[in-house]
Specification:
10% of the residues lie in helices and 32% in strands. The protein is mainly β and 161 residues long. The radius of gyration is 16 Å and the shape is globular. The chain starts with 5 loop residues before the first strand and ends in a 26-residue tail after the last strand.
Length: 161
């Protein structure tokens, strides 16, 4: 069992489905801005132009290797949320520990919408989202034994199935 989380780039083969080689080569792994920052900043791999009321999806080229009792939660950078009402389309991204085992190597995508009335420009290399690792607890009667078999949205849960 992994004891500490780690960020890596996805392979070129996986990223090439969503981006160009020079973009892949320039990807920067997430990192904290200060010694007491909770979040790891995700950096834009390309320039992003987000018009008011428009949505973009960013292929970060990043995967997270996470301990079994933790997850990675993705949020917009606070300043962008405050100034541009930038929001993630799924409100908060939750990256499970087994996502890195999926067919897409756990490639993290961030889909966000500019809900302000002004255009938002994010330069390549600028922090636009942040990830916070969180440990969680299981109920004493938890009986989940399913294994992930795909990428994003592949673990649809149903009661009684």
């Amino acid at each position: 069992m992994r004891t500490a989380p780690k960020f890596e780039k996805v392979s070129w083969e996986v990223f090439s489905q969503n981006g160009e080689r020079h973009v892949y080569d320039a990807i920067t792994l997430p990192r904290r801005a200060t010694a007491k920052s909770a979040g790891y900043d995700f950096f834009a791999p390309t320039d992003l132009e987000i018009a008011p009321s428009c949505t973009v999806t960013v292929a970060t080229g990043i995967r997270a290797l996470i301990p079994d009792d933790a997850c990675l939660m993705i949020f917009p950078r606070s300043g962008l949320g405050f100034k541009y009402r930038l929001r993630l389309n799924n409100t908060v991204g939750v990256i499970d520990a087994d996502y890195s085992d999926s067919d897409n190597e756990g490639h993290i995508f961030v889909r966000m919408t500019n809900e302000s009335d002004k255009p938002l420009h994010i330069s390549a290399g600028e922090a636009f989202a942040q990830g916070v690792f969180v440990r969680y607890l299981l109920t004493e009667d938890d009986d989940s034994t399913a294994v992930r078999n795909g990428g994003l949205g592949s673990t649809t849960a149903r009661v009684g199935k």
